[in-house]
Amino acid sequence: ETSNAEKQALEAEMRELQKTSFTWQFCLANMNHFMNQYLWFFSALTVENTVTHRWSELTSIERHQLREALHALYSGYEIDVPALQREKVAQLVAMVGLRQFPDENPQYLDDLHQLLQAKFNLGLTLCRATGDVITRNHTDVPSERQKRFANAINQHIPQLLAKLTEHCAFFAQQLKYNQSIQQSDPTAAHLTADSIELKRTEQYTMELLQTLQQFFTWAPLTAMQDTLLYSIASLAQCVETYLDIAIAALSTLGELLYSHKVFPQRAAMVGAILPLLAQPNVWQADEMYQDKLTDLVRLLVERDWCQRFNDKEFPAAELLQHLHTFTFSAYGALAFADRLSCWRPIVRSGPEEDGLDVTRPRDVWQHGTGRELVNKELLRTIGNAVQVVGSYTLSRMLFHHDSKQLLESLDNEELDDNMETELQHYYNQCLDLIELIAQYHPVYITNIVFEIIGNTALPYQQVFEICKILNRLRTPSTPPELVDPGNFTRIRYQLRDFSSICQMLVRLCAPLRGRYQSIDASIDWVISDQLCLFLAITDEMPTDRFFCRAGPSLARDFVQITAQLLMCLQSLLQLGTGAQPSPHNAYIVQLFMHVARLLVPLERLEQSQWSLLAMAASNFLCHASSKRHLTHYLLECMEPLYSTKLLHLDVFSMKRLNKAICTCFVSPWIHPVNEDAAVCQKHEQLLAQYILIRAQDLLRLEPYDPDWCRLLTAGVQSEHEHQTTGIQNTQVGTMESIKTEIIYLTDLIENFSDYNGLVKERLVNAYRPIIEKVLGLYQAICAAGQTTGTAAFTRQLLDFSHSVISVLQVQLGESFLRVIVRVFVDRFESATATCHRLQSVSTLLGIFQLIVDHPRSYRELMPDIIEFSVFTVWPLFRDQNEAILDEKLRDEVCQALFKIFHSLLHERFELFRPSSNISGGDSSASQASQRRLEAILNSYGLVIMGSSDAQLINEVLQSMQAIQERWQLFQLPVFRTQFLSSFVTTLLRKLVAADGMLHSGAIMNLLYSMTRAGDDCKQDQLDAAIQSLLLAPDAANELNSVMKATDYPTFAQQLEIFIHDMHIQQKQ
């Protein structure tokens, strides 16, 4: 057995063999004789390498020999040659054609036509290879040569397309004939073509459809014939006998629609696709076929419906009829939901419910000057179709109407990437369409929903009855009706239908509040019923008694409908401003009390079930806390909650409840209007007390206490070690408790970023002791020396500081900010350059970013921030410090660093602009400004040329362009004299580099701006830059000429050609 070392040596030897001048000739002459597949592929790669990398070294005779040998090899293949072999040689033939047709090899297309005539599959493969050559960008072929080849091919597309059309029509007729015979008499196989010929016809048809699909992506189609369109459509109907061909035909039609190409049959597309929808047994076809047909119809409706549905030739009524049948005969629930998206453009084109007012100007009804408006009959047809789709979709959402048991197969446990279950995803797709229909037919849709709600034979009312049965019991036993196995599935489906109906109400009714008196009355009736139901479910103490009586199998379902019920009430209840009476005001206080009950521990429920109730309850209270007139009631209900640390709740519920409580505390200052001073004082005290409770362990901590210093520097110790050292029994909380407090305090302050200054003043007063404590902790940790155990905690402290400055920057004041900046800078500079220190620097830079971006000047803070960023942090990366081994960490810090560089230059450029009037006292300041600017520009140049982070390079390029546009950076004397030449050189080298194409647009913009920096020394700088590239004289002259282009389009086009040619020279 050959070892890896031997294999590598052999491969190296073969690569060297490929570079000889004679190997390609030997390989090409013997490719037909090589039986070993590895040897054959080595030969093919040798020829390919010769064409792509050594073409310029070949003489005209050798090129002729290579072309003729390849053509002889390819045209000599039998029609059953292996596909991989055929495609590889066809690719080589096309690559040579790219370099020679039509000038040195005018026979290329004639040879292609002959192959289509004599060996059809070989001709098709060469067609596809030709298309691949045209659609790819070849770095080894000059741009002008590629355009020449593509233009020459395009001129002959009509003849080529006619040939393909002829074959497509023949195959469609042949397969249709065979299918009709097999359908009429399955035993009459002798009447069809023999099996070998039939299989070959199927193979050719599949390859032809693949070729056409590729053609539609790049070839001009103005000469396309009607026969081709209808032949493809005919093949798409052969689904019963030739499934793969039918699916390929649908994909081909889809590509034709998707391509945005101009072709004469564009208006006839609907006529070709409509019979596919009208197939009598399409609902029984393969699922993939139906999905492809759905995609095709969706594309047709999106592209054609709104523009053409009023045309006389457009079969709008037929399309609506067949689309309705196709939609509601879907093979599965998700397939049905997918087909609903086809109706969205149709809904938007229809009339509104309040009458067919066709005199109104409406884009979708009137397409242009002189066009006839939509006739009333067609609008009525569209409106009726849309209403029927809406009502049927509402029915299809209910298990009660799911006679085919399509919904039963949908999973309701596992979450997808969008945090939805399969069943919820289905509901959302249905509700998206129903919500859209309700915008045009609100009364019709809501009437159907209210009929579903009011019908005692349907699930909504039946769930009410089940809850009444559970409520009447005052014992922990489960009622017999729920224990009976025969009722279990039915009850579970009723509960799920109740949940989906609540979702309907949320999506449909809330937006219609106040628009229709009849709808408002119905919503009030629904709210009253739901309020009574929720209060009944949560009436007992503890609340989990009700769910326990439902039994372990149904408890989760009842928990889900209770959470859904609360979400529905949150959406439908008009809590208002308190100025107007509401029919539900009498229940509000009781409702708040019952909601708060769901936030105390419910020990007899599973944690996941209780968390679901807690999330719904905290969300509801958070929503209600924004209403000033309800603050008093909410605080009264939540009093048992805001006197504790809420550690029994899950993270989401705790954060939402924290926000609800604090919003109530600051409510007097959210909309301050004649607030009572005593009330304001009480709320301010409550806020301060609540924040202190949230931070009690943190505030008890003394950073310089020996025990805590040891704990902080040693990291998080085990619980056993805490106990043995006596720390666990002190009044000071554990490290984990303090970390948790900081997390919630950080989240809490972020909730108030958009509130007014009065609110933030109260918050800064409450937070100031915590901020000072955090600064002390940060100083203590840095003084003791960071370790692995404290790195994460240090990052938490910085994250907290970042959030505080983001929200309370103005309220903290410039003097306090100066203290914060000095603490961070001094401690960072005094620490050793370790990985642990660097893990926090990106957050630290983010804090400084907030200060730099703020509209206030903060001139006294800027020098420290600039010096820290430019001369402390950047050298760590410029000098490739060995401590920075983590590439992810390096990228993170670099992104933050150059973001602050950009903000400093873009927002505060006056700090870097040299003064024109320099006196003795200002000389040192001016020199410092210039020194900082030079350092940042040098860092930009180093990143552009040396960084492997494409995103960072792009951000630096965009930053330079933005600074130039705002401050005319390239016109500054310091840039013209010290940086122009080096930046032009750097940008050109980057453009020629392997990854240069990723940034070509941004680099060309910068080069154009730099070459326009008018100055008498500009040409000297450009000459120096071009000379430093060490180009050949002709190339240097060409580049010099490009740089003198008078407009950007010419400059970009010529520079792109120059760079492309440079790539070719590099490869040679």
TrEMBL record:
Q: Which GO terms describe its biological process?
A: protein export from nucleus
A single cellular component GO annotation: nucleus
Keywords on record: Cytoplasm, Nucleus, Protein transport, Transport
**Pfam families membership:** Xpo1
Major site of localization recorded for this protein: cytoplasm
Q: Where is the Exportin-1/Importin-beta-like domain?
A: 86-234
Subcellular localization: Cytoplasm; Nucleus
Q: Kindly list the GO molecular function terms attached to this UniProt entry.
A: nuclear export signal receptor activity
Under InterPro entries, the record lists:
ARM-like, ARM-type_fold, Exportin-1/Importin-b-like, XPO6
SUPFAM superfamilies this protein is in?
A: ARM repeat
Q: Name the family the entry cites.
A: Belongs to the exportin family.
Give the protein name, as stated in the record: Exportin-1/Importin-beta-like domain-containing protein
Organism the protein comes from: Anopheles marajoara
